[in-house]
Amino acid sequence: MSYSVTEPTKRQKWFAGTLVILYAIITILPLAWIMMTGFKTPPDSISYPPKVYFEPSLEGYVNLFTTRTRVSQETLENLPPPQNFAEEIVRNRGMVIAGPSKFGQRFLNSVIIGFGSTFLSIFLGTLAAYAFSRFKIPLADDLLFFILSTRMMPPIAVAIPIFLMYRKLGLSDTHLGMILLYTGVNISLAVWLLKGFIDEIPREYEEAALIDGYTRFQAFYKIVLPQAATGIASTAIFCLIFAWNEYAFAVLLTSGTAQTAPPFIPTIIGVGGLDWPAVAAGATIFLLPVMIFTILLRKHLLRGITFGAVRK
Amino acid sequence: MSDKTINRVAKATPRRLARKVRGLSDRAIAWIFVGPTIFLLLAINIFPLIWTINLSFTNFKANRINRAVDYIGLRNYERILTDGDIWLSMQATAHFLFWTIFFQVLIGFALAWLINRKFKGNDIWTTIIVLPMMLSPAVVGNFWTFLYQPQIGLFNYVVAFFTGADPSSFEMLGSVDLAPWSIVIVDTWMWTPFVMLICLAGLRSIPDYIYEAAEVDRASKLRQFFTITIPMVMPFLMLAVLFRGIENFKMFDLVVQLTGGGPGSTTELASINLKREAFEKWRTGYSSAFAIILFVTVFGLASIYVKALNKVKER
C-alpha cells in the first residue's frame, strides 16, 4: 500500500466532513425555512413556537398571485360554488378573488429586462472581448482597468445622473432604459470574463483558417465562437444573475411599468397585513431559478465572481 | 523572383476585389467590434461620472428643475467633511466592513481548510454552502426580517433554544445595540462562501511536493501550516478581502431591506445615507459631492491595497 504524507487520515476526513456538513445545514436552514413558509397558512406562519410540522397549503401562492376583497357572509353564501382550488382557499377566509396581483407582471419584467440585457451584454461583449484578445488596441490595458473601476462606484452615486439623464430622454421606468442600464453595468464583467475565455483558445486555429482563405469575420464566427461556447454560456448566466438580483437601480428608476421583482417582493407584505406566506412564496419563485443556475455553474463560479482573477 | 510576382499581383488587384477576398482589414474589424461597447460605457458609465463631478460644485436640486443653478465651488465638499451625520454613517460603514470581513475570512478559511481534507461528498456540500451567495440581496434582506422577528422568528427561536433566553426578550433589528450585528450576521451568512471558494482555490494551488519536502525535513504539522499553507494562501485571501471590501463599502440593498438604516441611524451605511440625501431630501449637488468622495475613497484604498497585494504575490 502506498503511503502519502499529504493524504489526510480517515479520522481527519471524518472530522472535517462532520464540521462542514454541520455548517452546510446551518447555512441552508434559513432558505429551507422560507420555502416551507411559502406552504404554510398565515396563522401557521406566525405561530409560536415556530411550526416545523404543519398542514401544507397553497394559500401563500394564491395570495401572491391574486388580490382579494372581503365580503359579507351573506354574499359569500349566495355565490355559485367555487370554480377552482384558489377560490375555495380564498372563500374559506371570507373573501373573494378580485383579480390578479401585480406579481406576475413584475416577474415578467424581471425576465424581459434580465434576458434583454444579458443578450445585449453578451453580443457586444463577445465582439469587444475578441478584439481585445486578438488585436492591438491602443491603451487597451488602461481601458480595461477603467472599465473595471467603474464598478467601484456605489450604484446610488451612478443613479443620480442616470436618473436625470433618463428623465430627459424619457427612458425612466421603461424596459429599454433598464436593459441599456444593466447592459452598461454588466458589460465590463462580460468583456473581462470573455477575454479570459478567448485568450485560452489558441490563435493557431484561426491563423490556419485565415490561410485557408477564411476572412477574419468568418474565422471569428466559425472557429472562435464554437470554441468559446462554454465560456459564453457561463458568462451569460453571470450577467443574467446580476441583472436578476439588481435592486438599487430598479428601486430608484422604476416605479410601475418596468419595475422588476426585487423592489416589488418586499411590498407584498404591506398589501395584506402580515402575509408572510405570500412573501415567502414570491421569494421562493424568484430565488429558485438562481439556485438552479448556481448549481449548473459551480465549476465556473469562482471565475465569474472574481472577474476572472481566480481561475480554477 | 516569386516575391516580385506576388507584389505585382497585389498591385494589379483592385482594392475592392482585395477586400472581397480578404474581408475587412483587422483594424476596421477591431474598431467595429469594440466601438459599440465603448459607446455604451461612455453613455452609462463615463458621462454620468463627469456629470456627477459637475453637479457636485452646484446647489442643484433635482426636484426643482426651474430653480436657477449656481456654482458654489467647494462648499458642498466642505459641508460634507464637517457634517456629523456623514461621519456617523462612515463609522457605521467601518464597523460593518471590519466585522463582516473578519468573520468571513475566519469562517471562510476554516471551511476551505476542512473541505480540502477531501472527505467523501465534499463537492456536494460545497455547492450547498455556496447557494446564499448568488441570491438577490434585497430579497434575502427581506426574508431575514421575518427570521429576525421577535418570538415568531426562527433566528430568535434558535438562539433562545440554545441560550435559554426568552425569544421575545430581544429584537435583533429593533434594538440599537443588536441592529449593527444583525446586518453583520446576514452578510456573513451570505458571503462567507465567497471567501471560502477563493481560499479553496488557493489551497488547491499548493503542490503536494512542498509538504512532502517539509515532512522529510521533519517540520511539525503546525509549522507546515504557518510556513507553507498560510503564506501560499495569502494572495488569494487578500484578493477575497479586496472584493468583499469594495462590495461592502458600497453596500445598499441588503441593509436597506433589513433595517432601512435604523433604528435611529445606527445602521445607516454610507450608501443609505447617500440615497437619503439624493432621493429623499433631493440635495442633488450635495449628494453628488458625497458620491465623488466615496468613489475617490474606494478607489484610493483599493489602489494602495492592490499594490500591497502585488508585493505579497511577488514574494
Task: Give a quick set of tags describing it.
heterodimer; A: 312 residues; mainly alpha; two-stranded antiparallel ribbon; 16 helices; 4% strand; B: 315 residues; 14 helices; flat
Written description of the protein model:
The complex is a heterodimer of chains A (312) and B (315). In chain A, helix 3 (59-65) crosses helix 15, helix 6 (103-134) packs parallel to helix 9 (175-199) and helix 10 (203-211) packs antiparallel against helix 11. Chain A has a two-stranded antiparallel sheet. The longest helix of chain A is centred in the middle third of the chain and has 32 residues, at 103-134. Chain A has 312 residues and is mostly helical. Chain A is 70% helix and 4% strand. By secondary structure, chain B is mainly alpha-helical. Chain B has a single domain, classed as MetI-like fold (Orthogonal Bundle), CATH 1.10.3720. In chain B, 73% of the residues lie in helices and 0% in strands. Chain B has 14 helices and no strands. Chain B has helices at 2-12, 15-22, 26-55, 75-81, 84-115, 122-130, 137-147, 154-163, 179-204, 208-216, 221-249, 253-258, 270-279, 284-314. Classes of the chains: A mainly alpha (312), B mainly alpha (315). Chains A and B meet through helix 1, helix 6, helix 7, helix 8 and helix 9 of A and helix 3, helix 5, helix 6, helix 7 and helix 9 of B.
